[in-house]
Amino acid sequence: MTKQSDSPGFGGVPLPKLGPNEDFSLEAARKRLGETFEPIPTPELPPADPDLDRAVAELRRLREATAALAHSEVELGDIADRLAEVADLLEPRVPSPSKRLETMWTGAGTRRSNPVAGPENPLAPPVQFYGCDDGSVRAEVTLGPVYQGPPGCVHGGVSALIIDHMMGFANHWGGRFGMTAHYEIDYRSPTPLLEPLSLRAWVQEGEGRKTWTHATIHAGERLCVEARGLFLEASVPVPGQPGTESMLGDGG
Ligand SMILES: CCCCCCCCCC(=O)SCCNC(=O)CCNC(=O)[C@H](O)C(C)(C)COP(=O)(O)OP(=O)(O)OC[C@H]1O[C@@H](n2cnc3c(N)ncnc32)[C@H](O)[C@@H]1OP(=O)(O)O
């Protein structure tokens, strides 16, 4: 994740005041946690193989195209055979899902493979988040028909997925950690597909193990979704690394 000052196009809505106990700006997080604190150290995490991101980008093109197959004039029998050929080529050569869970937690961790921002994950749009000096994280993304819920609009569960992830990211940027314990979402107006959406999340307050984080999705100046979450500092065992626990600091 790169550090970026406010950029135009984020709706211009001021962030609410931070909680009474702490300042969650990047500078304050650095002071609190010391020089070793390096949230999201690598803006461009290198792929394990230079062709990996290209391969997944092609899969995303396929994802969009296959979502449009119905009512097209494509000869589908032939397409299905050709896709099966590629799948047959890949399946026996890639690690098993349980092995993959282990390798995800080495090197760049899950930052490259999570379902929101991970360049390696064909499910991810992907969303590229930036950490800002005011302690918020932001992104802009345009979502296509594969993410549709109501006609022409983003599925509410997809918004929730993105929001959960970006609140976790905001926690990390603010020097906080934790699992999502509870969050609530207000869908204020329809979230359009095929239009740029401005995403924003920030830590509102923190006390002991608890962090309260807020997030919004805007289409231009229009508020589409707002959310508030409670995160609790906790750790979970890391697959394939007995005795190792993660506090979700490596998931952005
Ligand atoms: C760069 C980083 C980017 C990272 C992005 C990744 C984001 C991904 C975010 C996720 O998807 S996390 C996955 C979804 N979440 C989970 O799977 C969590 C599952 N739940 C748990 O593991 C436990 O419930 C949890 C660790 C959250 C809490 O269990 P604890 O046993 O530690 O809590 P405990 O019962 O001791 O409660 C501690 C306090 O929190 C309060 N609390 C717990 N759960 C609550 C809840 N659900 N709502 C409100 N308050 C809650 C509880 O009342 C209490 O308050 P007090 O201390 O004031 O008494």
How is this structure best described in words?
One of its GO terms (cellular component) is cytoplasm. The protein has one domain: Hotdog Thioesterase (Thiol Ester Dehydrase, Chain A), CATH 3.10.129. Helices cover 25% and strands 21% of the residues. The chain has 5 helices and 8 strands. The chain has helices spanning 26-33, 52-67, 76-90, 97-103, 156-173; strands at 130-131, 137-141, 179-187, 197-207, 210-219, 222-232, 236-237, 245-246. Strands 1-2-4-5-6-3 form a 6-stranded antiparallel β-sheet, with helices on one face. A two-stranded antiparallel ribbon has the order 7-8. Strand 1 and strand 2 (137-141) form a beta hairpin. The radius of gyration is 19 Å and the shape is globular. 29% of the residues are buried. Bound molecules: decanoyl-CoA. The site of decanoyl-CoA (MFK) has 16 residues, from helix 5, strand 3 and strand 6.
Layout: helices, strands, pairs:
Elements lengths: L25 H8 L18 H16 L8 H15 L6 H7 L26 E2 L5 E5 L14 H18 L5 E9 L9 E11 L2 E10 L2 E11 L3 E2 L7 E2 L6
Antiparallel strand pairs: 1-2, 2-4, 3-6, 4-5, 5-6, 7-8
This protein binds decanoyl-CoA.
Decanoyl-CoA binds next to helix 5, strand 3 and strand 6.
Organism: Dietzia lutea
Subcellular location: Cell projection, Ruffle membrane; Cytoplasm; Membrane
Protein name: Acyl-coenzyme A thioesterase THEM4
Structure characteristics:
Thiol Ester Dehydrase, Chain A, binds decanoyl-CoA, disordered N terminus, cytoplasm, apoptosis, 8 strands, membrane, 6-stranded antiparallel beta sheet, about 250 residues, alpha+beta, single chain, 5 helices, THEM4/THEM5_acyl-CoA_thioest, lipid metabolism
